[in-house]
Amino acid sequence: MLKFTIGADISKDKINFALRFLNDYLLEKEVENTTSALNKFIKEVQSIVKSIVKEKKAKYSVEFIMEHTGIYGNLLIECLAGQKMTMFVVAGLEIKNSTGISRGKNDKIDAQRIADYGVRFADKLKPYTLCDQTLTALKALNTKRAQLVRIKAQLTQANDDNKKFIGKETQKTLEQINKPVVTELDKAIEKIEAQMLELIKSDASIYENYKIAQSVPGVGKVIAVAFICATNNFTKFASAKALGSYCGVVPFGKESGRYKGKDKVSPIANKALKTLLHLGAVASISGKNPFAVYYQRKVAVDKKNKMLALNNVRNKIVKTMFACIKNKTKYTADYSFSFAA
Fold it and tell me: Which CA distances in Å does 132 have to 38, 82, 121, 139, 193?
């Protein structure tokens, strides 16, 4: 089997490609990040590959590998999907950590390093598949909603300080400026949330997971949607532990020789999901549910630090939500296992 690996270093306006075959780079090229230019390059790659394969008379595979760069990689992904090409999308930090000590950096070198990563770790890579249109649209709306919420917070979070440290006349002027803007932001957020709910209801699978997720203590509409978007409707992760690690709520040990440190969560995480989980955990422990009882037992009986106990609740929310959705069952506080006779 002849294997051709193409590394792609993506930026807003251009993409640098490096076509690797065996230990050589057959083609290194800078291409505009447009649909027409990318389709033309893909055909050029196919032409080169076919000429080599025809000469050697062997089976072959062509694989594109790229870093996750948000929307900048969308055109390339769509072009590759349209031509049914195999592709892999990898976190940039993962590729960076795999290169060891490196000196020098430019787009051409980065494309080579991405191709090298694809060759070295081929057995660990999972092919990337496009999300359906409903999930893609839901992700875009959720991102826009989060952006508007941040803007609203920036405009309103200084209100208490203004009342204490700024004169009444100046404070009144600022409120007159902010009020219509905040009002419009509220309307826009409500409109986006309504559109998101329509999208969710239009897809039976997404809507079912949306309802199941909200049955878990501490999980509301915002957290449910965020997890559906981040996990591609709970299909991206094979286990609750993998999802918890992605959210930064699973503690890992640190040992070396005689030294044994405390288990700690990793700073490498989806910080947005972790923040939402924290808010959900705080809400759950203030209510009357098994999670609140669990938290109180950790603090009062086990004498655990409050933040450690709270992180345990965050982790418990992830595990419970993952299990409920996997089993297609809403959360029930008095659930008990039933064993087959």
Answer: 22, 14, 28, 11, 20
State how far the alpha carbon of 70 is from the alpha carbons of 73, 139, 200, in Å: 6, 11, 22
| Bridge-based pairing state of the strands 14-21 and 2-10 | antiparallel
Q: Is the pLDDT of residue 336 over 90?
A: no
Got the DSSP string for 68-81? Answer: --GGGGHHHHHHHH
Say how far apart CA 69 and CA 11 lie, in whole Å.
8
Distance between CA atoms of 248 and 268, rounded to whole angstroms?
7
- pLDDT > 70 in the chain, percent: 98
Cβ–Cβ < 8 Å for 92, 68: yes
Return the amino acid letter for 319: K
Question: Among 30, 25, 23, which residue's Cα sits nearest to residue 6?
Answer: 25
pLDDT of 341 > 60? The answer is no
* Residue 7: pLDDT over 50: yes
130: left (phi over 0), alpha (psi -120 to 50) or beta: beta
Residue 312 CB partners (closer than 8 Å, separation 6+):
294, 295, 298, 304
Task: Report how far residue 192's alpha carbon sits from residue 225's, in angstroms, rounded to the nearest whole number.
Answer: 12
Q: For position 160, what pLDDT does the model report?
A: 76
pTM of the full structure: 0.86
pLDDT digits (tens, 9 = 90+) for 33-62: 999 999 999 999 999 999 999 887 788 999
Burial of residue 8 (number of CB atoms within 10 Å: 0-12, 13-18, 19+): buried
pLDDT at 338: 47
DSSP string, 198-251: HHHHHSHHHHHHHHHHHTSTT--HHHHHHHHHHTTTTTS-SSHHHHHHHHT-SE
Strand, coil or helix: what is 320? helix
Residue 291 near residue 317 (C-beta atoms within 8 A) = yes
Q: Which residues contact 322 (CB under 8 A, 6 or more apart)?
A: 234, 237, 239, 240, 243
- Rounded to 10 degrees, the C-alpha dihedral 55/60/65/71 comes to 100
